[in-house]
Design goal:
The complex is a heterodimer of chains A (291) and B (276). Chain A is built from twelve helices and two strands, in the order H-E-E-H-H-H-H-H-H-H-H-H-H-H. By secondary structure, chain A is mainly alpha-helical. Chain A has a two-stranded antiparallel ribbon with strand order 1-2. In chain A, a hairpin with a 6-residue loop joins strand 1 and strand 2. The chains are: A mainly alpha (291), B mainly alpha (276). At the A-B interface, helix 1, helix 3, helix 4, helix 5 and helix 6 of A face helix 1, helix 4, helix 5, helix 6 and helix 7 of B.
């Protein structure tokens, strides 16, 4: 068999996957979005852009959009700050460092179901451990029902989301930090740069591309994330945490409106693409500024 | 002196952060050994006054927990095997042969990453229903591959691309076919990466919730993500002891994988990140 043909053959399964799980779904939801169809039936009526009009004029959609932006922005920002801090810490040497590195990776492993169950347990009720610690040990005046209080639910899921996914960022930053040639730091010391100078002129420029990569990947990922938020709050309370993926889920599987659900899905996807383009453009611009 | 203070501070910080990160799971573990009444004790106890294995015993003997566990195992192993095999073939092909569409494949992988799972779910649900794939483990395996395959390709890329082409070429000059070069040289060299990818995709598949939620309806086919919830819903009162025992058991396979191959995982992340 000719060499290149074998190469093509090896690629076929992946191509199959791309067609089935990317190309087809995109076209299918586009198609479904211009019909009105009940989930459990096979009949549907063509409604053109009516679904889009309905969605744009529904406050639920804008509420979900807002929730998505707040959640995504909040959780990515928090992850970024925490990850840089911890990565810098783990990059230094201290007893127990390897143990810490393993311990921190831990939360990435835990299934969303277990995470949700655990945090719900730790946060609900007077005797829940977190409330107990905050109230009786640290003497904060704490709200007790974190996840069912409309004012605190979003903050709670942001913190939990950060806990769950920050290890990924930490590892990526740590790897980059560890690849920085130590000689650069030595040279800087000889030149008289202080710790802060070192940080600004060596560490940050090296981290920048990785930070950018991490930001864009995390943002896209958190924007479309469903499992953990749904399990923690179901989109409530009072739809405060009803991010777009949950809104799509409820529209399709609880209200059984396949057409409308597809419409929201299409819009969500377009927004994701828009966010990526904005990111890439702004990164290109900042690159041009440096050069 | 400054250095010592700095080290002490960093050690304390490192320790506190580790505890902070592990705490929820530690708390889960402790709770699973407490009696029901002690779970809600005020003040909460850090170390159980009375240790009990009853939750675990009840869980295994009186619920379908083992069934759910088995389902999750079947699905996770299958998805990982498929993802790794397809991934290795595809990455090898893309890195050794210069096809015209190679660049667009990268873009397509990125787009796959951007597609919300729920969108894929609602687009495929009708087709799956027609093909009788709804409520089947096979259907679940197929759709979860859509999540794990891009990951697999992303991870394997850095491993396979760094294997020098000279290795295969010298083998082929010595008379080996492309396929033999692939199986006897590439695959063994990339084995750490293959193992890391397998573990990665296993974890992702084991933790999958949404697709299981959408696809599976009958108790017998539920994976652990769903089963855990239904075990608890089925009882009259919410038993956190039960729930925590189930949660602990459901993490154990992941902990074992993690423990055996932590170095693989870390190198997997970093290889993909620094190169990719």
């Amino acid at each position: 068999m000719k060499d290149k043909t074998l190469g093509r053959f090896m690629l076929i399964p992946l191509m199959l996957f791309i067609i089935l799980f990317e190309i087809y779904p995109i076209f299918k939801v586009l198609e479904q979005s211009v019909f009105r169809q009940h989930m459990l039936s096979a009949d549907r009526t063509f409604v053109g852009i009516q679904n889009y009009i309905k969605i744009f004029s529904s406050s639920a959609f804008w509420n979900s959009l807002k929730a998505s932006f707040i959640y995504t922005g909040g959780v990515v920002a928090m992850q970024l700050i925490v990850a840089i801090f911890i990565a810098l810490l783990l990059n230094t040497d201290f007893p127990g460092r390897n143990f810490a590195r393993g311990a921190i990776l831990f939360s990435y492993l835990v299934p969303p179901v277990v995470t949700a169950v655990t945090f719900k347990f730790m946060l609900t009720g007077d005797n829940a451990i977190i409330n107990y610690l905050l109230r009786d040990i640290f003497h904060f005046n704490t709200p007790v029902a974190w996840l069912s209080n409309p004012k605190t639910a979003m903050l709670a899921i942001i913190i939990i989301g950060c806990w769950k996914n920050v290890p990924f960022m930490i590892i990526v930053f740590l790897a980059q930090l560890q690849s920085i040639n130590q000689e650069l730091y030595e040279a800087a010391k000889i030149d008289g740069a202080g710790r802060i100078g070192e940080f600004i002129h060596i560490t940050i420029p090296f981290l920048q591309p990785v930070i950018f990569m991490a930001l864009i990947f995390r943002t896209i990922w958190e924007f479309r994330f469903f499992d953990l938020i749904y399990l923690l709050t179901g989109g409530g309370p009072l739809n405060m945490t009803n991010v777009l993926p949950i809104h799509i889920f409820n529209t399709t599987f609880e209200q059984y409106a396949l057409g409308k659900g597809s419409t929201i899905g299409v819009l969500t996807f377009i927004i994701s693409i828009a966010i990526s383009i904005v990111y890439i453009r702004s990164y290109d611009k900042s690159l041009k500024k440096i050069t | 002196m400054k250095k010592i203070i700095s080290k002490v501070v960093r050690t304390i910080l490192g320790f506190s952060i580790s505890i902070l990160f592990c705490f929820p799971i530690i708390w889960l573990l402790i709770t699973s050994f407490k009696t029901n009444s002690e779970i809600f004790a005020n003040p909460p106890t850090l170390i159980p006054k009375v240790w009990t294995l009853q939750h675990y015993i009840d869980l295994i003997s009186r619920t379908d927990f083992l069934l759910f566990f088995g389902n999750s195992a079947i699905v996770a192993i299958s998805t990982s095997v498929i993802s790794v095999i397809v991934g290795v073939f595809a990455v090898y092909s893309l890195s050794r042969f210069k096809f015209r569409g190679s660049n667009s494949i990268n873009i397509l992988m990125l787009i796959a990453y951007m597609l919300p799972q729920i969108l894929i779910a609602i687009s495929l649900i009708k087709v799956f229903a027609q093909l009788n794939l709804v409520n089947s483990l096979f259907g679940l395996i197929v759709i979860i591959v859509s999540v794990t395959l891009p990951f697999s390709v992303w991870m394997l890329k850095s491993y396979i691309e760094t294997i020098p082409v000279a290795l295969e070429e010298s083998a082929m000059i010595d008379g080996a076919t492309r396929l033999q070069a692939f199986s006897k040289i590439i695959v063994p060299s990339a084995m750490p990466g293959i193992i890391a990818t397998f573990i990665f995709t296993f974890i992702i598949s084991w933790n999958e919730y949404l697709y299981a939620l959408v696809l599976i309806q009958s108790e017998a086919k539920k994976t652990i993500s769903l089963g855990l919830v239904s075990i608890v819903m089925g009882k009259q009162t919410l038993s956190y002891g039960f729930l925590s025992a189930g949660a602990v058991l459901s993490i154990i396979p992941l902990l074992i994988l993690f423990g055996f191959t932590q170095r693989y995982l870390v190198s997997g992340f970093t290889a993909g990140a620094v190169k990719g």
